[in-house]
Amino acid sequence: MKALEERIQKDGQILPGNVVAIDNFLNHQIDTALCRKMADAIYEEFQDEPVTKILTIEASGIALATLIARLFNAPLLFAKKTKSTNIHHDIYETKVDSYTHGDTNRVFVSKKYLPSTDKVLIVDDFLAMGEATRGLIDICQQAEAEVVGIGIAVEKGFQPGGKYLRDHGHRLKSLAIIDAIDEESGIITFRVQDDLTELCAKKALPNKPSFERN
Amino acid sequence: MKALEERIQKDGQILPGNVVAIDNFLNHQIDTALCRKMADAIYEEFQDEPVTKILTIEASGIALATLIARLFNAPLLFAKKTKSTNIHHDIYETKVDSYTHGDTNRVFVSKKYLPSTDKVLIVDDFLAMGEATRGLIDICQQAEAEVVGIGIAVEKGFQPGGKYLRDHGHRLKSLAIIDAIDEESGIITFRVQDDLTELCAKKALPNKPSFERN
User: Among A22, A104, A186, B157, which residue's Cβ finds the most Cβ atoms within 10 Å?
Assistant: First the structure.
């Protein structure tokens, strides 16, 4: 997605260790107008799937997932990191290592919100090692719910998460895939992808649903 | 807001200790269609304020705050609970006690995303003791940014958070205020409020902005 790639190149802050901080428009402060365009692109990618639930993990994927859930007219479910005393019923739980934070979290969802009939679109803002996404897939497998797709804002293509998911047959769409970061020049190289959003816009395809979806 | 009150009465799960769990449509699984109506109502309440930033706290306030940020065409900033290794710059930090989780978190925002010129609308899904909201106000005070309003989905009117904020001169709008919970009958009593959304709908006031705001 061109607009996202340009924004990463313009506003991303390159840090040592192949890190691009994008907390000025996606991870901490969120440009919700750009986020809406990203949601449109994910929706257009997966609109042929019978999505019944959007699943993400707290916290920074929730904004994008919310806008995508509106488009699919589906509930949003987010995996939680701490067990609230309000939640007494049965849960599906999994372990997620965070390389960014250098720790491990146990995350969970309530069983009653993920029935086996659900067709799940997993959404997250970032994919690098793929730990969070694989944790969400594990939760869906425990629930025997079908993962129909994975929509990611930014993938680090030089880390193994994306390859692992594609090799395992998952339908994965990352709006921007960073293949290389040159710390010296500040140039970020993105993988060339078909951009369905732009194709649709160019061809004026009837890719918008008729219900109010905002 | 009638639709929210009805949903709390219908789907809220009353637990011992005056707790109403609303994790089936707001705190864990999120009904984003209802959330959009709630965002509309908060927007209508504060549309006369020159809001430049929406501030919330991770995680369950982010969905509502995202939709409100779209309406104001303003960036969303959410206070984080853990320090990412990606964030090296200066932060405003505050302490938030959580009575629900029975613990204390330090939350922070990056200084560069909260300049003193900001006019901040604080948003959260829940207000009871008011700890989270007061933490966000504290962060705004450190930044010398002006808090122009506080928009809350559900307030527990029998706990002191709302009264404290109103007594301190804050413009607070809670879409539903629970004044009493009868554990035996399951009846929840809501405070009677002027419902600006419904008034506007009835009078067909021109309360919608003309720009695309979804």
Answer: A22
pLDDT band at residue A59 using 50, 70 and 90 as cut-offs: very high
Across the interface, which of A19, A29, A36 has its CB nearest the CB of B70?
A: A36
Cβ–Cβ gap B78/A30 under 8 Å: yes
Give the C-alpha separation, A133 to A139, whole Å.
Answer: 10
Q: How far is A75 from chain B (nearest CA, A)?
A: 5
| C-alpha torsion sign, points A28, B39, A148, A142 | positive
Strands (E), B22-145: 29-30, 53-57, 76-79, 91-98, 103-110, 119-127
- Beta bridge partners, A4, equal none
For chain A, how long is the longest CA-to-CA vector? 53
Q: What is the pLDDT of residues A93-115, one digit of tens each?
A: 999 987 767 788 899 999 999 99
What's the complex ipTM?
A: 0.89
In the stretch 27-46 of chain B, residues with CB closer than 8 A to chain A read 27-33, 35-36
Find residue B45's DSSP bridge partners: none
| Residue-range domains of chain B with CATH | 2-203 (3.40.50.2020)
Q: In whole angstroms, give the CA distance from residue B23 to residue A75.
A: 12
Contact assessment for residue A214 and residue B36, using Cβ atoms and an 8 Å cutoff:
yes
The arithmetic mean of pLDDT across residues A111-128, rounded, is 97
Instruction: Locate the DSSP E strands across chain B.
Output: 13-15, 19-21, 29-30, 53-57, 76-79, 91-98, 103-110, 119-127, 146-156, 172-181, 188-190
Of A32, A133, A58, which is closest to residue B60 (Cα–Cα)? A58
pTM (2 d.p.): 0.90
